[in-house]
Amino acid sequence: MLIPSRAMSRRRVLRTAGGMAIALPFFEAMGPTLGQQVLARDNDVESSPKRFVAICASLGFHGGHLFPQTAGNDYEATPYLEPLIHHRDKFSLFSGLSHPEQNGNNGHASELTWLTAARRPGLAGFRNTVSLDQLIASRIGLQTRFPYLALTTGGQSLSWTSSGVEIPAQHSPSKLFTAMFVDGKPHEVQQDLDRLRRGRSVLDTVGSRARALKQELGSRDQRKLDEYLSSIRDLESRLQQSEGWVKRPKPNVDAEPVEDIHDKSLAIERQQLMYRIIALALQTDSTRTITFQLAGLNSVPQIEGVQSDWHGLSHHGKDPDKIAELKRIELAEWKAFAEFLDQLQSIEEGTRSLLDQTSVLFGSNLGNASAHDWRNLPILLAGGGYRHGSYVAHDGSNNTPLCNLYVQLAQRMGVETDAFGSSTAVGIRGLEESPAT
Questions:
Q1: Matching InterPro entries, A to Z (predicted)?
Q2: Same domain, yes or no: 315 and 417
Q3: Among candidate residues 204, 205, 224, the one with its CA nearest the CA of residue 214
């Protein structure tokens, strides 16, 4: 690779390379996150890569304990915002956002489409679409050992391919830690290489046969076949990239291997453990795109003062006793999330924190879980180099498309697009990039 005499931003390098994922490599000498630039710096140089994390709580949050009474910068902290209020200038809270036509085959079907916005989830003829994280990963995923991470505490994945196929989510922090930081023995590395090469050989055969078939097809079928061949080429590139990463040593981290928490009733502890691994994944630049589904329970979580089934409490029917018990669970979730933001804020990357370089989307697919209502979703965005500090209330009756925010997030991650899902605009009211970024 030729290095120009005048430093370019990483985004500019990628753009001039015709959309290919070609960029200067990251070196271990680059500092605590492996993402810092040590080249000559000027105003056109990014000091570190951008990341995206999406976290969805499948049983929602009680709005009365989350949303302030007044919008703007001077809102009074609510019980759920209190644990992270010391990060007040690092996050924005939104109401009045949703995806259209999320009535599905059951009250929780909108969980399938939180990052896709596909309509009428689970009903006859439904086919999901690509999730936001996978759109981003298709643009930047080849720059890291893992193009993306799809994680869960034990439930539905948030990640879907461009063909609408669910990507299985990892629920074991110990397996994830091993995959990222524990080097395999020589024979294990060779086995991994052999598997990757066999996979590429199969794709070579399928690809050559598909190209021969194209001559026999009409124009519409040829377009479909071109899409298929494009997906094959993308997978071939990923396999080749994976082969290169298999040969390279994994990052050294100052952390002991973790053990999984098998007791599902320790729901908050399971969230906290996965948050720790997510922070390590971002810090070591093992990936830049992560989804994390916070699964609820059809049983009683081990939280002081909670004696009822979590799912049952989410259908409180405005019963004050049930709401009070539900508050204990949801407040614990918000405290765990606040600890995660603390971790990202504490990791320095050049002149900024890892939180400043990471867009963290936190919310739910349900606005009112008690009624299975998918409107007026609770959405919080932290970090990412945006101007924060406000509670922004969009129209509660005529919701703003959540996908308008998704387009804005995708663009910041380097995706050149003006539309996604049900979007009607680029960006949403109340969210602007910081001038410093």
A1: DUF1552, TAT_signal
A2: yes
A3: 224
